[in-house]
Design a protein that fits this description.
2-enoyl-CoA Hydratase, Chain A, domain 1, 260 residues, alpha/beta, six-stranded mixed β-sheet, single chain, 2 domains
Length: 260
């Protein structure tokens, strides 16, 4: 598929999706959200892709926010539909993807950009990264899951402060908050993420998918995460990856997982 706003680079076991709107600091508009959905869907359906890395083009921004010009004149109903559709199409979709997604936060990740990074399974930031949810300075609140995912990652009090002040935090502070897992120099960000992707890809993709499902279950109202873990643990025993993994361990060799 031809994309106007993103670039895709496939490697041995992983794919890099680059949001490519440098003149707009990679801001998310409707077209970009649709393209990202399709790109993530295609990568998830490709059995050779074990990990997805998402990054912004250039060195200034991961994603500097949503494209405000698209919704500045929206009604109450239109605003609600915008949030609902965006969450379903991209943010919730990424969070529940069976293929692990790493956000390589290179520069500004504001508003919808931070919400995109938080929807990924974990985050690595460059040392020049700045993160925040400035929506209240526009008379809005975060609408792509920010009020829900930020407290889960940094705690209620810190999330309240970040959202109410509409301020930015730097990469060092984001690391201390637990918002990102690692901080690297700008030039080392992508190579670092690629090394993480290679480590992940050596493991069972079937088991990783089950782990994602079990971990996410803990954050769904009315769902018992322990029960989901038990179910997914049991399901693993019926996979070819389990047979290969245990056989390789007993034979004292590296496993070659078929991903089934």
């Amino acid at each position: 598929m031809h994309y106007e706003n993103i670039l895709i680079s496939n490697h041995n076991d992983f794919s890099i999706i680059t949001i490519n709107r440098p003149t707009k600091l990679n801001a998310l508009n409707k077209a970009t959200i649709k393209e990202l959905h399709q790109a993530f869907k295609e990568a998830d359906e490709d059995s050779s892709i074990k990990v997805i890395i998402v990054i912004g083009s250039g060195e200034k921004a991961f994603v500097a926010g949503a494209d405000i010009s698209e919704f500045a004149n929206f009604s109450v109903e239109e605003g609600g539909k915008l949030a609902a559709k965006g969450q379903k199409l991209l943010f919730d979709f990424i969070e529940n993807l069976s293929t692990p997604v790493i956000a390589a936060v290179n520069g500004f990740a504001l508003g919808g950009g931070l919400e995109l990074a938080m929807a990924c399974h974990f985050r690595v930031a460059s040392d020049n990264a700045k993160m925040g949810l400035p929506e209240v300075s526009l008379g809005l609140i975060p609408g792509y899951g920010g009020t829900q995912r930020l407290p889960n990652l940094v705690g209620k009090g810190r999330a309240m402060e970040m959202i109410m002040t509409a301020g930015m935090i730097d990469a060092k502070q984001a690391l201390s908050y637990g918002l990102v897992n690692h901080v690297t120099p700008q030039e080392e960000l992508l190579p670092f993420c690629e090394k993480l992707a290679q480590k992940i890809s050596r493991n069972s993709s079937v088991a990783i998918s089950a782990a994602i499902k079990a971990i996410n279950a803990n954050f769904i109202d009315g769902v018992n995460g322990f029960e989901v873990e038990i179910e997914e643990f049991g399901n693993c025993f019926g996979t070819e990856d389990f047979v290969e993994g245990t056989t390789a361990f007993l034979q004292k060799r590296k496993a070659d997982f078929p991903g089934k």
